[in-house]
Amino acid sequence: MLTKRLLEHERGGYILLAVLAALAIVVPIANLVIPEGSPLHMSTFMVQLLGKYLCYALLAISLDLVWGYAGILSLGHGAFFALGGYAMGMYLMRQIGARGVYGNPELPDFMVFLNWDALPWYWYGFDNFWFAMLMVVLVPGLLAFVFGWLAFRSRVTGVYLSIITQALTYALMLAFFRNEMGFGGNNGLTDFKDMLGYNLQSDATRIVLFLCSVAALAFGYLACRYVVTSKLGRVVAAIRDAESRVRFTGFRAETYKLWVFTFSAVLAGIAGALYVPQVGIINPTEFQPLNSIELVVWVALGGRGTLYGAALGAALVNYAKSVLTAALPEVWLFVLGALFVLVTIALPKGCVGLVERVRRLRHA
Amino acid sequence: MLEEQAPPAGEPLPGGIVAPRNWILYLDKISVSFDGFLALNNLNLYIERGELRCVIGPNGAGKTTMMDVITGKTRPDEGEAFFAGTIDLLAHDEPEIASWIGRKFQKPTVFVNHTVLENLELAGLRDKRVWPSLVKRTTPEERDRIDATLRTIGLTADATRPAGALSHGQKQWLEIGMLLQQNPQVLLVDEPVAGMTKQEVETTAELLTGLAGEHSVVVVEHDMEFVRSIARQVTVLHQGHVLAEGSMDAIQNDARVIEVYLGE
Predict the structure, then answer these.
(1) pLDDT band (50, 70, 90) for residue B5
(2) 3-state helix, strand, coil in chain B (%, to 5)
């Protein structure tokens, strides 16, 4: 019943889940079972790269939920991703214990370096994994809730809302750059050793993290499908198309937007938390406005309002970025700008729209 | 609370107009100004239960502003607005008022990316809070009600089409259908026959006269022929206040009305 509702007429959704299932089977085998000399072997670097793309895809889906369905163009969604990442990073920092450069069992290295003699109160509890996981969800969710409550209740919409979301992530970036904030300043949090006692450098741990990312993306996609195929999803899409009509029909538009925005921020936070142990670092550049804008390009390029299109866009753009920044690093930003212009003018429905147009032409 | 301030029915009110014994909507001395321009100036309006009232007036007479005040979009600078005896409309916002008073916009406003069925389903949702809308499914009773509305507005065959694909006239009907689904006691209908063919106008007239009785219907319209065909009681607005009120015949012979409006 539920799967039928979630995936009915969703060819793209089936393909996404099939790809994820295939990855979950093939990647561990290619990395752990097939010996290193074989051409079929997958390097740990590749596993880590794919895992990163999966986190980006989950982030893109979370943005598509608010932008593609609720019509809220958030230009600060990277902030929720980074906050989830920092919550995870704080747990990983505390796991280092006495193995840091200064060997302080209590304080992370950067605090010793700053001559702090005690752990700030907001670091309490982060040595506990489950507390940290709770914070991964709670911190981005709470920020989105408070921000959304203020913005939606005052009926801030459209480009004004986009600008203040941008300001939000920029302000957080400036704050996290400050050493006195106690989050490692511009170096951020890094040199992680292990997680739940498992060595983060080992192949097996990396595969488990990869599988967690696969599961999170599948869960995120299905959860968003559940939302958008429910009546709530229809109300939210109606708000996107004609907000005042929705109010005169008896719905509290701002409350609907608030909950969808908060849920989306929580998903973005989960994506960030899975990203950090795989790339091994979190620093304030994750908050920079450019990241959030790039994220919008992924979703636009993939095809907004489809969810799976956002995941596709995230994978495509980031693959292009990986290739280009290795080959021609100075070209990347121009390519990104050109992509955005191209999509806006020529592909209003992104790659998903293009595929559909081609299919229709073939049928006609 | 404000309940005591509601006027007793049947007693003469300031302004000389007698509130009907059985009023459902009551506007008293409402004034609204935008940057010094008086959009509504001491407006009094009383609508009876089950009545079909037409409101006419030249452009800028304040018809849309009046609807904005009634539905909670605009707060008046002065005056009172009550619904069904005790409910102070000025103390409520759009979603709350929507359960008592439904509004059809001048430009047909339906959810273009949703099907006709989904439009009606959303409008008819009993519980409009967030969580129930996430988990609750459409019940057979709700489905029956939607089917009945589809028949009333003549869109049964178009139920699964996106609302954006409907003709202009069909969109107007769909919006009226959404009002019916909402099931308010008062329907405010802004220019329901704008851009309709003659045949569509007739169907709309039947639809609206059929709704009166069970609902109170307030129709704002420019099309005088249409007003003549449905109106029992007509209110003429001019420069933000009521210029004349009465039967269509009385209105047509009113010298002031002829001067500002009909005589053109």
Answers:
(1) very low
(2) 40, 25, 35
> For chain A, what's the residue count?
364
Contact A7, A225 (CB under 8 A): yes
Mutation site, B74, B111, B143, B171, interface A, largest A CB count within 10 A: B111
The full set of domains in chain A, from first to last, is: 2-363 (1.10.3470)
Neighbours of A18 (CB within 10 A): 10
In Å, how far is A81's CA from the nearest CA of chain B?
25
Residue of B nearest to A240 (CA): B111
Judged on CB neighbours under 10 Å (0-12, 13-18, 19+), A364 is exposed
- Phi and psi angles of residue B43, each rounded to the nearest 5 degrees, phi first: -85, 130
Model pTM score: 0.91
Q: Which of A133, A154, A161, A134 is nearest to A77 (CA)?
A: A161
Beta strands in B66-150 (DSSP E): 78-83, 87-88, 101-104
Q: How far apart are CA A10 and CA A17, in angstroms?
A: 11
Query: 3-state DSSP call for residue B131?
Result: helix
Span A163-187, pLDDT tens digits: 999 999 999 999 999 999 999 999 9
Closest CA relative to residue A9, chosen from A215, A306, A247: A306
pLDDT digits (tens, 9 = 90+) for A292-319: 999 999 999 999 999 999 999 999 999 9
